[in-house]
Request: fold
Amino acid sequence: MRSGGTECQNEMSSHSGSFVQINFDDIHFFENCGGGSFGSVYRARWISQDKEVAVKKLLRIENEAEILSVLSHRNIIQFYGAIVEPPNYGIVTEYASKGSLYDFLSCAESEEVDISHIMTWATEIARGMHYLHSEAPVKVIHRDLKSRNVVITADKVLKICDFGASKFLTHTTHMSLVGTFPWMAPEVIQSLPVSETCDTFSYAVVLWEMLTREVPFKGLEGLQVAWLVVEKEERLTIPSGCPASFAELMRNCWRTDPKERPTFKRILSTLESMWNDSQLSKQCNSFLHNKSEWRCEIEATLERLKKLERELSSKEQELKVRERRLKMWESKLIQQSNSPDLGKTVFL
Reply:
């Protein structure tokens, strides 16, 4: 027990001075408001500061606090400090009262999203990501960008959060399998070396969510999605009525070769051109109002992918049965070869 306590103390002291340490007793917890990577998130009050905050409870403090402590941007969640009192560990950040972008988009009661919302939010996320990749004190790859990790503040500003899967990036590097499959780039799924553009791939999935208000690869299991994205190079269906500029942006972001995907600097330049396109507003609003016409395209693709996966499962099952039969046959041959009767010479 003593060694465990010493280990916790060493961990705590190793982080001291890097960020504000907040006393566990100075936090009053309210309801659980979601789960981040590697921890549960609670709405809470920082008593001494009389401030509403979000607290992600953790088993231990690792690199997330270190990452957040050096970041400062309008579209990145504001970090206040960390709780480092064994066994209580947590990340304390600003509280976004309107919840996650995922919840907003999937809630039928949410207000309508028009071209203005989509362009503003697409730009805000891209600005936050550009900051992480190119302007932060240390370059950071998020690796888990998805609509659940983008939150909406009371004044409807989007902020990127949950840096539990992030890494400081000093070079192209191998990274462990993290994130959620429908948002993950092929190289992340395969645990191959990754660069900043793995976040570009994920960004386009979030953009697709904002345009369609559909769940990516709905009804498919994570591993099924992984197989389809990597082995079959399948991508989310871009409805035929989708404005060409959005369709082209998403396709470019979903290229298999990471080097062919745009950086966020280029994405921001593309979005600026789209803002200046006088025809885009009409095209996009027409697309958004005709959801019933193109939703069937997405559903048809999902059915095709499910059928493809079922066929694969059936083939795998056939191979397993065949493999079992071969092993049984091999076992019988071995038994027969060891039989005394077969050791005799037979003349016909």
